Amino acid sequence: xxxxxxxxxxxxxxxxxRGKARITESDLKEVLREVKLALLEADVNYKIVKDxxxxxxxxxxxxxxxxxxTPGQQVVKxxxxxxxxLLGGEEARINFTPNPPTIIMLVGLxxxxxxxxxxxxxxxxxxxxxxxxxxxxxxxxxxxxxxLQVVGKQLDIPVYVNENTKDVKIIAxxxxxxxxxxxxxxxxxDTAGRLQIDEALMQELKDLKKDVKPHEILLVVDSMTxxxxxxxxxxxxxxxxxxxxxxxxxxxxxxxGAALSTKKVTGRPIKYIATxxxxxxxxxxxxxxxxxxxxxxxxxxxxxxxxxxxxxxEEAEKLEKKxxxxxxxxxxxxxxxxxxKKMGSFSSILKMIPGxxxxxxxxIDDKEFVKIxxxxxxxxxEERRNPKILNGSRRLRIAKGSGTTxxxxxxFMKSFEMxxxxxxxxxxxxxxxxFMKNLDMNKIKDMPEFxxxx
Length: 454
Prior knowledge:
eight-stranded mixed beta sheet, 434 Repressor (Amino-terminal Domain), Rossmann fold, alpha/beta, Four Helix Bundle (Hemerythrin (Met), subunit A), 3 domains
């Protein structure tokens, strides 16, 4: 996951700070040196790192932080505040025109993920009550049009195509007329890219911008390209003028620091981040929430938003009734497992929970949840509702049906029994505070969902 290396290093540093009752000026300099190394190792631009450290040092020394009762915590707060500022300060969303259609032009190098991102962006915009239209303006890359059509079909979002001309200005203008006739209030132009920036590419994009006058030009940046991401962002902004950035492939690079530098070098906000391969794996970029994630402080608001988008209200009410009766069975477990899968990878969700990211010995393998689903699906309805009847022969049959072993079935059932106990504690009237106080993280670490089945 992106920023994993940076996150790990910064969390170690902030943990040391919080534990200190007193911090000297030399302690602060040592801490800042570690922060500097962490940022540089994460591929954050050197000049940005230098300025970042300078600001933190000035604020820490200038506010009598070292003489305060909680200097460690105050330094951590300064680091977080400056990290939020580095990431953009406040969230920035698309500015929709009051006179539709709003035209959004996606630009970027070939391979940055523009076409898939076009679909993801259309998908998230549709959830805001809009009616988007995808437009195939990449007339050079083989199969680019077909790829956009496939993405559109998967999402049930219309795609405008004109294969009779390679003039993208004509295609875009015809698409505008088509959108108005079909009541589409957002047009997303999937433009052509190149393996590297060249004059022909820039001229075509400039001509398209001049003719179509897009309301938003969003640069799609591959976060795995290191310092090239900064160079690309700088050039596109200087040559074309961009309104925002979409970072892609944030699930594939443990560093990602160069991508964080794009906001600072261009002055343009990061508006969205793509966090996986699924067409639903895109989210609005919240600087403060991302800073909290990086520093291991969690991101509960994003979990709540994801849950509100994906969880079925009727199913949730049924589960609530069953929990009150302390009757949580394997059918309920399977239902919740499938609801959680819609929210994204389990590892990414857990990293948003305060405290979980600090548990480095807990390893989440999302593939194991596929095995768990196969195990439950290999049971009869009676077995799911009453797991106590799972004797040796039944477990052997389930193992064969799910492609697992009896040992794995036994481990999962122990885990499920623990889950049932946790659910009972939560609903027994003892209260959430007592539940959290008695929560044994060592037992949770032993659950097969949190480590590979071996």
